[in-house]
Amino acid sequence: MALTDLPQLPGLRSLPVLERPDLVAAPVAAALADWPGASGVAVVEIDPELADTAAMSAAYHLPMEAGANCVLVAGKREGEERIAACLVRADTRADVNHTVKRLLDVRKPSFLPLERAVTESEMEYGGITPVGLPTGWRLLVDARVADIDVAVIGSGLRRSKLLVPGGLLVQLPRAEVVEGLAG
After folding, report:
1. Using CA atoms, how far apart are residues 141 and 55, in angstroms rounded to an integer?
2. CB proximity list for 81: less than 8 A, separation 6 or greater
3. How far apart are CA 120 and CA 115, in angstroms?
4. Chain-wide mean pLDDT for the chain?
5. In terms of pLDDT, which residue wins out, 172 or 1?
6. What does pTM read for this prediction?
7. Residue 25: inside a domain
């Protein structure tokens, strides 16, 4: 794929992610190597201090609706823990107390504690992404993510981001597209 075919956003230099595994966390690189859609994914280097969505959007003059956030939610049912990664547009919030609760079939869902999220995902806080998560976790993707021309998502590291067409994100392995996942 030519560099001009990669997803692009103004102010960011798109690089082919498959050629720059050093810019993504190890589980992300492994997942991308096995995913046919990875050829349509770019990686961009950023200042790690700007990894949080609002800071990056402001610094690089990107609309919030160009970002997609991955939040990790857990809950239990009859002693069994259930974890899901929820991918939602950055200008929305995952409906944890209703939609996610129903989909996971748990009594009380909550966000996975930071230390545990980082340890179990093998990704840095501020860079957690739906690509390369543990296989036992569900991947719930809000249907509106598909409408993002070029989505900015984590790379597993704070110093870079992935640029992915929204239509590709809903094709990630194990992705469950959910209407109304976010509000």
Report:
1. 23
2. 74, 75
3. 9
4. 95
5. 172
6. 0.94
7. yes
Question: Structural domain of residue 45, as residue ranges?
Answer: 3-178
Q: What is the 3-state secondary structure (H, E, C) of the chain?
A: CCHHHCCCCCCCCCEEHHHCHHHCCHHHHHHHHCCHHHHHCEEEECCHHHCCHHHHHHHCCCCHHHEEEEEEEEEEECCEEEEEEEEEECCCCECHHHHHHHHHCCCCCEECCHHHHHHHHCCCCCCCCCCCCCCCCEEEEEHHHHHCCCEEEECCCCCEEEEECHHHHCCCCCEEEECCCEC
Residue 4 is predicted with a pLDDT of 59
113: its two tokens: 């504690």
**CATH classification of the domain holding 141:** 3.90.960.10
Q: How far apart are CA 3 and CA 137, in angstroms?
A: 33
Report the alpha-carbon distance of residue 71 to residue 69 in Å, rounded: 6
Say how many domains are in the chain: 1
Q: What is the pLDDT of residue 3?
A: 56
